[in-house]
Amino acid sequence: MNTPHRFDWTAGYPSRRSPLFARNIVSTSHPLAAQAGLRVMQAGGNAVDAAIAAAACMTLVEPCSNGLGSDAFCILWDGQQLHGLNASGPAPAAWTPAYFQGQVMPRRGWGSVTVPGAVGGWMALSERFGRLPFADLMQPAIEIAKRGYAVPPIVQGKWAMAAALDEITSQPGFAQAFLPHGRAPAVGERFTFADAARSLKLIAETRGEAFYRGEIAAALARFARETGGALTEADLAGYRPEWVTPLAKDFAGHTLHEIPPNGQGIAAQMALGLLSHCRVTDHAVDSPEAQHLMIEAMKLAFADVYRFVAEPAAMRVSAAQLLDDGYLAERARLIDPARAQVFGAGNPVKGGTIYLTAADERGMMVSFIQSNYMGFGSGLVLPGYGVSLQNRGHCFTLEPGHPNQVAPGKRPFHTIIPAFLTKDGAPVMSFGVMGGNMQPQGHMQTLVRMLCYGQNPQAACDAPRWRFNEGLSINIEPHMPAATIEALRARGHEIGDIHDSYQDFGAGQFIWRQGDPAVDGYVAASDPRRDGAAVGW
User: Fold this and answer.
1) Could you tell me the pLDDT band of residue 347, with boundaries at 50, 70 and 90?
2) What proportion of the chain, given as a percentage, has pLDDT over 90?
3) Which residue of 173, 202, 355, 497 has the smallest Cβ count within 10 Å?
4) Helix, strand, coil percent content, the chain, rounded in steps of 5
5) What is the reported pLDDT for 533?
């Protein structure tokens, strides 16, 4: 057997990739998943079929970010109008505040696992909008799970970091599933996942019913009973995704649409609403003045989102109040163009995630995201079935009276957010950016570049980004102009090590509609930060 050449997998240069032009496109963070989506479109499927097939493959080829036990959200244009799908799951029935008495919300293990919603999301999308049989959409993923794939550098790096954390590797089922030979796979090493192939086959044969009301559900509930979890067959059987109306916020002659709470998409809309009162285009795109205004607007938005946003029934303020232009104008006046600040929440009351997008020549456009939340989620993996479970329950709080306080059957605050852009009611772009609280920050930064400064989607995707953490702390990618970085530091921003390779600045996928999709097609951008790939014909 030949020994693989020992390349330096980290060496590289800023991306100079060109956007992709085609009438049918699938854009994901892994080429095999993008190819799977394109394969089903070439077999007669539409953009929804492609998105489901790609999403199923992503659970295998990027397991450090998502799995069969993920949650998901989707915004899609069906050719006539927008639809939103919330496929995040609720807390188990046993999760009262007393259940966690004397604890903080667990980061890993069963205390972090809510009902997984992604498979239910696939089922709902296929039933309402798909063209091909659901079982056909699972076939590419089943094949990948059986034959394996070569692990790419970025995925391997995240996998190796997780393999060094006892809080993950000590969880039941993790080592058996994800540490073949007692370690994370090496770059280029083949990884097969027969257990996941078994589950995908059951999901295909039952149109997903096995996951919630069949063999997989029974195995999940038994696993929970045997290893200290509260998840039951009743919790799984009662789950249904929710069709929702996306929120809308105008900016720069376009309208940004996001899934309403319990997600954080409203943060991007609020930040853009704030920015519309700040004359950002008076300054060059990469100038410290423009970047400072964007950072401060994002901080103001987060201050409100972290205080007020939760499951809608538990919120004391409405999304409409948070997006009210008068309120945002009032908050925007708090921004000092010369100084970084720490902001508190206002008073709006007066009186390791994957993202993919697909579009077809019939005009259907799909913006889809699914995630296990923190790398490998809860760390729990169902033995024999390969279902890795998310840790979204960690997003609850135990603070009494907080709108996001844990409760039975309640959905936690969610970070994953697909996005969609329209103009005068017509579809323009399906897009998203991955990475925890980086997601609304990425939405805002890329839209400002495209809509205010005319940068094409790939340029906006490749451009340097910053990430707000908390207080005055931000991180900045090293290819931001050095003069801008120093000027931001002089304004009081506390900037972390710009060469810290562990910082996550998100990775995005973008499909922009050119005109008549059957004639003019689309232009797609895919992010090199996470092995992104856009394919089409």
Assistant:
1) confident
2) 85
3) 497
4) 40, 20, 45
5) 81
d(CA 24, CA 271): 32
Q: Is 227 a catalytic residue?
A: no
Q: Phi-psi region for residue 152, left (φ > 0), alpha (ψ -120 to 50) or beta?
A: beta
Residue whose tokens read 């309120």? 327
Closest CA relative to residue 128, chosen from 337, 417, 366: 366
Q: Which of 492, 366, 507 is nearest to 434 (CA)?
A: 507
At 102-124, the pLDDT tens digits run 899 999 999 999 999 999 999 99
Beta strands in 13-67 (DSSP E): 20-22, 25-28
What does 165-207 look like in DSSP terms, one character per residue?
A: -HHHHTSTTHHHHH-GGGSPPPTT-EE--HHHHHHHHHHHHTT
Mapped onto helix, strand or coil, the DSSP state of residue 361 is coil
What percent of the chain is modeled with pLDDT above 70? 96
Q: Which regions of 198-338 does DSSP assign to beta strands (E)?
A: 242-244, 247-251, 254-258
Structure tokens at 349: 């009351």
pLDDT digits (tens, 9 = 90+) for 24-45: 999 999 999 999 999 999 999 9
DSSP bridge partners of 414: 263
CA distances from 451 to 215, 357, 363 (A): 49, 20, 22
Q: Is the pTM of this model over 0.90?
A: yes
**pLDDT of 12 higher than 60:** no
pLDDT at 32: 96
Distance CA 208, CA 147 (A): 23
Token pair of 272 as six digits: 């853009």
Q: Which two tokens stand for residue 124?
A: 């709902």
Is 90 exceeded by the pLDDT of residue 482? yes
- Determine which one of 114, 206, 255, 353 is catalytic: 353
Neighbours of 386 (CB within 10 A): 26
Contact 125, 51 (CB under 8 A): yes
Residue 2: the pLDDT is: 44
How far is it between the farthest Cα atoms of the chain? 75
Q: Are 412 and 95 in contact (CB under 8 A)?
A: no
Say which residues have a Cβ less than 8 Å from residue 514's Cβ, sequence separation at least 6: 21, 520, 521, 522, 523
The number of C-alpha atoms within 13 Å of 171 and in the hemisphere containing its C-beta is 32
Q: How far apart are alpha carbons 514 and 250 in whole angstroms?
A: 20
Helix (H, G, I), strand (E, B) or coil at 142: helix
- Which DSSP state fits 389? B
- Of 298, 268, 255, 267, which Cα lies nearest the Cα of 429? 255
Residue 98, token pair as written in the block: 């007393």
Lookup result for tokens 């980004």 = 465
HSE, CB side, 13 Å, CA atoms: give it for residue 60: 34
The whole-number pLDDT of residue 467 equals: 95
Closest CA to 485 of 470, 506, 464, 501: 464
pLDDT in tens, 214-244: 999 999 999 999 999 999 999 999 999 999 9
Contacts of 105 by beta carbon, 8 Å cutoff, 6+ apart: 111, 112, 393, 394, 395, 396, 397, 398, 406
| C-beta separation of 498 from 508 below 8 A | no
